[in-house]
Each structure stands twice: as C-alpha cells, then as structure tokens.
Amino acid sequence: MSRPGPRDRRFGPGCHAEPTEAELRRRPDIPAGHLSCLLPCLTPARAWLNLSVSSVAPTHRWHLPPGRDGEVSEVARTAGVPALVAQLLLRRGLKTPAETRAFLEPSAAALRKPDSLPDIAQATERVITATRNLERVLVYGDYDVDGVTGTALLVSVLSRLGADVLYYLPARTTEGYGFSLRAVEFCREHGVRLVITNDCGSSDREALVAAHDAGVDVIVTDHHELKVGTPPASLPVVAFVNPKRPDSVYPFRELAGVGVAFKLAWSVLAALGRPRAELTSLLDLVGLGTMADVVPLVDENRVIARLGLSAIRSSCRPGIRALIEVARLKGANLASHEVGFMLAPRINAAGRVGRAEQAVKLLLTEDEAEARRLAAGLDDLNRQRQALEEETFNQAVETVKASRLTDRRALVVAGNGWHEGVIGIVAARLVEEFYRPCIVVALKDRQGRGSGRSITGFNLHQALEHCAEHLVRFGGHRYAAGLVVEPDKLPAFEQALNEYAATMSEEIYQPSLQVEAVAQLDEIDDALLAALDRFEPFGPDNPEPLLASQGLEVVGYPRRVGKDHLKLRVRSGTRVLEAIAWGRSSELLHLRVGEKNHLDICYTVNRRTYAGRTSLQLTIRDLATNG
C-alpha cells in the first residue's frame, strides 16, 4: 500500500523553515562543539522560522508490504530462517523449501545445458571446423563490460584450443555500436574466414550481408532484442545464437551477452570432451560481465553471478587481481556493489574514453607486470571519464531546467560536443534525478548518437520501436538502449516518445520505494546481515532488501559528514543503531533529538568499516518525521 496524506509526495523534500544562528546558540541541547557541524547547513538567505514548526517530508512514495503472517511463519519454519528473512523470501515469490534453497544456495547444477539455444549446434560445429583447419577467426565484441568480458572469454577458449584467433572491438566515437562495414573490411584485409560476434549483431543486417558477400562466415551471439520485421532465418549467417529470438525454446531469455558466449564455449568444450575445469575457469569473466550489465539477476543469471562473484574473489587471472588492487579492494569482502561500482567502471572507461582493447588485454594477459600497468592505465581513464561525466551531467541538468522539460513524461536532451562515452551514465543519473525515462544525445557532424535509460514499468526498447520512423537505427532492451538520430528529427522524435509515454499509467512516473518488510530495530543484528549476504549478488529484479522502521527516536547529536550527508543514531526501545542518509544534511535542523515516535525511515542494512572496526549501519534511502 502507499503511505497516505502529506507523505504521498512526488518530488523533492518539503520546504523547511530553518532556525537562526542565534536560536541555535541558545538551544541547551546543542553543545558548543557541535555548532560547527550545524551552522554550515544554514542557507545564505537566512529567512528562517522556528524549528518547532518544521518537519521532514519523504522524497518518494513508500509502498509498504501487505501482512502475510501465516505464510511468513511457514517459510520461517521450513527454511530455518528468522521471520524477517522469511518475509524477504516471500517478496521474491519463494515459498517452498526447494525454492528457498535454490535461491539461498545457488549451485552450478542449476545451470542449463546450452543444447536448446537456437542454432547452437551449427555454431559449435563451425567453430570446431575452423579450429581444426586453422582458419583465421575474429571475435567481434562490444565496448562495454559485457562485450569486453565476452570477447576475452571467447578468445581465451579459442586460443586454448589452438585456433588462429584475433579480436576486434569498435571505437565508440568513430564506429559506434554493432558489427559494421568497417569490420567487414578488416576481415578482408586480415584473411578472416569466420567471425563470432558477442553482445551485438542482431540489428546489423547490412554488415552481415556484406560479410556473406565477401565470403566470410558469421556466427552471431547476442542477447539484444530483434528488430520487428526481421525474421532470424532472413539473416545470412551460419548461426544466430540469441535466446530472445521469437522461435527460441531456451527456457531463460535474459542471459547477458557474455552469458551467451559462455554457453557457446560450454557447447564447444563439451563436444571436444575437454576437462570441466576449462569451463569453470571462465566463471570470473561471465560473472563480471553479467553483474555489470543491466540484466535481471534471477534464474540462471543469479547462479552465474553468484558463482562468478566467488570466482572473482579467488581469481587466478592477473588482470582481475590487478584491477582489484588498483581499485583498493585487495583484502575486501567483494560483493555486487564493489563489482558494479568499482571494478566495472574501470573496464568501461576503456571503451568510453579510450579503446576497449586495453580492457581485453588486461583480462587476457598472463604477465603480472603487464596487468599492473594496464590496470593503472584504466584507472587513469576512469578519472578522465568521471570529469567528463560530471561536466556533461551538469550541462544536461541545466538544459532540462532551462527548457522546462520536467513536466514531460520522457526526457530527451542533446548537446553539441558531448562525449559519446559518458552519455549513458549521464542518462542514468538524469533518471535518478528526475525519475523519467531519459535519452541523452551527443551531436557531432550532423549526426546524433544517443543513449537511454529507463524507469521501472517503462520498456525503453518498445518505446523506441514506436518512434522508429524518426531514427536512423536503434537497439537495446527494456532497461537501456542506444540510437542514432539526425539532428533535425530530434523534435519529432521527442514528441513521438512523449506520445508513447502518455499511454502509460501516471503511477509509473511517481518515484516510489518498494519496502520489503517493516522491521523492529531489535531484529537488525549481525545474524540478519549474515542472512542478507546469502541474497547477494544484488541487481535488477533482485534488489538489496529495503526495510522500513517507524516511530523511532533520534538520539545523541545528528551531524553533517562529508559534503552533504547526514549522520545520526536512532533508537527504538533499548536498541540504538548508527545510520547515514546520503545527500540529506539539509534535514539536520529539522530533527528533534529525544522525541519518541518522531522518525520513520526506509533503509538497507550494511557493514561499515572504520579504523579497523566493522559495525552495522543503516543506509537511509528516505526519511520522514511525524508531526
């Protein structure tokens, strides 16, 4: 259910009245030493009212879970877990002992054999023939983490089999996404007889036809949606391995690109009777690419990601070890957050502001010194990417506000000179900022290259199909997409996208938080955190569990930390816990210390390590005061 009344707000915290500096200095409950934390939070306008009339309003709608006491008790009993953990399992649709066991203890036995993937037999046979005949093979990948890891995976397998193998990843700014005519020319120049695409190819009919005419066989391995009106049988390829083909009978259609590459490698290695260890040695790569891509972490993807996370932690691959070291994660307990926000961005930086081949080299090298050098180079590129991203994001926000786009259901922003390598990240940040599907377009040489990200309930690929007449080309899936558009078509495209968006329910455009369980603070302990570790890895369709606690008391002295963060302690009964709210220091002056039933919070439960000591910490996603 939704929280009713004044907390059912759409955007932004409420307008809060703030006390004067003199009023703060007169307050007996604030020691003089804490004023240095409080005073910088005061706004320059200094038009404040008394603190006693202010309150904190939430920034999202909170959807609280329905009561399911009987089911909770049964799952808790059969799974042998606390009631709170049983609630979280039920929210994921898991009821039976077999279902909960499969989720909490994913096993390699749950991975499906590749046999039912479309064209997998033809692809396997052609790869084995090329290997035995020493035909030159080109692995053609994409420049993101999914494509980089898939390329490294296929190259490593083919090299181990003795194949004559090259790899090629297009330059983002000059070639763009997908199998291209330039790649066909590369094949001619280098005597390539077989191309295996990874994470691309489904929408590249022109280049596939050119390759066929040039006498080059192509195996497409991909996971992107197919264009409407493009029957797989019409593509001139040896094999088209994509679980999203309309005629596919493979039970799970949401594999990442590297997941499809892993299945092809599995099929080839099995057909040749190779040792199982050769397949399991690829788990670090397939896990890294799957966690970094925007795919649902359920079913097989959950198994792949869980096994891959374990493999990354103990990887013998010099490149992965060097990447962990340069990210300052050596000795850390790696989880999906560290993979997604610290390792993956460094790999992505190569394709964004450099050449993606640098990342493939890192993952393939067997030389420790070279691995450290390449990892350091990616670290430098990542810093460049961060600077470009921040500049572009600020310009994009100004464009949205200056053009008064915030009342539209879908945002399209374009800019001359924006770097194509960062527009995808900028789109994701704009979605977070404005909670709208967003397309960011970089304009250059009378052409626009765009990248889009979406919100829950808005299928971006379907939306672009609705607007196809205004686009040169596009591709992607429900969460993310890329496109090419002529600048003079941008207004018509924006209008068509918003017309499609207007057909969707108003509710999906309201930022909301899906609370999985309402918890008492005495339920939040180390045992719960250990249980939540078994829910890892987190990602789309398996988010980090979001809890809510209501009627809390703020104790001690809340304070600002860092640039704009709120640090506080909360109490319920005798239980007191540390909490932090990122970017919410402006709420500091509106918290009443020592008042019971004062604060409601939505949060995740995390570990905090400081000065060698690890403790529990609540990471607040949203908060609201009562009264």
Overview of this structure, please?
The chain is α/β, with parallel strands linked by helices and 627 residues long. Helices cover 38% and strands 19% of the residues. It contains 21 helices and 18 strands. The strands form 4 sheets. Strands 3-2-4-5-6 form a 5-stranded parallel β-sheet, with helices on both faces. Strands 7-8-9-11-10 form a 5-stranded mixed β-sheet, sandwiched between helices. A 5-stranded mixed β-barrel has the order 14-15-16-18-17. Helix 7 (145-160) crosses helix 16, helix 8 (181-190) packs parallel to helix 9 and helix 15 (336-353) crosses helix 17 (368-402). The longest helix is centred in the middle third of the chain and has 35 residues, at 368-402. The radius of gyration is 26 Å and the shape is globular. Mean pLDDT is 90; it is low at 1-19 and 33-53.
CATH architecture of the largest domain: Beta Barrel
Strand count: 18
Count up the domains: 4
Major sheet? 5 strands, parallel
CATH domain class of the largest domain? Mainly Beta
**CATH superfamily heading of the largest domain:** Nucleic acid-binding proteins
Q: Total helix count?
A: 21
Taking pLDDT < 50 over at least 5 consecutive residues as the criterion, the unreliable ranges are 1-19, 33-53
- Structural class per helix/strand content? alpha/beta
Q: What is the percentage of strand-forming residues? A: 15-25%
Report mean pLDDT, rounded to a whole number.
90
End-to-end CA span: 21 Å
Shape by Cα distribution: globular
Helicity, in percent? Answer: 25-40%
